[in-house]
Amino acid sequence: MKTVIGLEIHLQLKTQSKLFCSCPTEGYREASPNSLVCPTCVSQPGSKPFGVNAATITQALKIALALGSKITDAKVLVQRKHYFYPDLASGFQRTSKPIATGGALCGVRIREMHIEEDPGQYDLRKGTVNYNRSGIPLIEIVTEPDMDSPDQARQFLDELKAVLDYLDASRVEPGSMRCDANISISMDGKEGTRTEIKNINSFKGVYTALSFEGARQRSMLKNKLKIEQETRHYDEAQGITTLLRKKESADDYRYFPDPDVPPIEISQTEVVQLKKRMPELPSQKRERFRKDYGITEEEAFTITLEKPLADAFEETTKKVPAANAARFFRGTLKKQLNYRSLDYKDSSLSPTTIIELLSLLEEKQITEKVSEQLLIGLLDKGLTPKENAQKQGLLGVHGGKEIEALVEKAIADNTNAVTDYKNGKPEALHFLAGQVMKQSKGKADPTIVKKLLEKKLAKE
Questions:
Q1: 401-459: CATH, from 3.90.1150.10, 1.10.10.10, 1.10.10.410, 2.60.120.10
Q2: Could you say which of 221, 291, 409, 459 is the most buried, measured as most Cβ atoms within 10 Å of its Cβ?
Q3: What is the pLDDT of residues 212-267, one digit of tens each?
């Protein structure tokens, strides 16, 4: 069995006003329902679109260039895509013909990109509609079905998120990205029946939805059950997919050119100027970091996934050896940020405080264990590293007779663990080392602790 996955990613573009009117896009979630709308947003009789927001085109072109896509030099028609749902006041959604085709990211080919308008928000339980979101500009990125696992899809989306972060072209708050995932299972060389999972609201959700749907389809095939072509809903709370409706075809949407919107003309002069102003992208920064700082591929990949984190790393290397900074950023720092579901830019950290922390480690005033404790205090309470270390008595690394005394105490107090170690259970040594580190409040050097334990236990 072979899994085949393709994605359709909808991203809200970063503009000050909506796609076809001057209503603001900022704060639409926090504003009172239906307070950021005009006759165009809610399709009142006689209302007309103003024309395509030029900033939308610019932001979309930046994304297309970053993905290596070919931007069309023809006029781009805006179409009406008809379907009936409460969040769509007009009964149709305006969506363009492709503005760009081709390109690739992480080995996944891009088929095409479109511009379209976001619908409103329908609350199924309350039966109410909020049109504040209606008309916010979107770009739809359609991939080829080149992914063969949920892991590959997640890797693609992580890299796409990084590219968007560097471009500053799309919105990043929760709900600004939605993804439709297409998945099928090929068996015995025969192409599988494709199922579409609609409106997944997070990258993590894409992974979970694809994992469940792939397992569901493989189970059906093993039990010789027929898979129907259908559209399914992702239930985020349960991590499952459920039947939404039978899959529509393009004919069902009754596409035709919108008579109220002139075709989009893309300025090739603007394209040339945008190419010149393109920032250093994650893959380029990754290669430069490896070359200039001599760090590993894994370290460079993790650090460059978030531009503010990469910028902080470069600033830190002015005061701290790059190898040590990279190890800290990829390991301890990312571990603590991930535990809190935080991006670096949303944390209280700065290069100044990181340099202060790592300088204590460089000067051997603290151990790596203590550095993590101080990082936690910095993240959760805003405590500066040196002041926090002084208050808790964490400065200074135990060595020599101090460690030796703690090792002897750990051996004396934990005879069962000593017996286990002598009986061939190496994990007992880790337990004993942990006891020493606990007694030293993390101030003992773990490497020295381990060597002393092995030496003394050999004599027992």
A1: 1.10.10.410
A2: 221
A3: 999 999 999 999 898 988 999 998 889 999 888 775 666 677 889 999 999 999 99
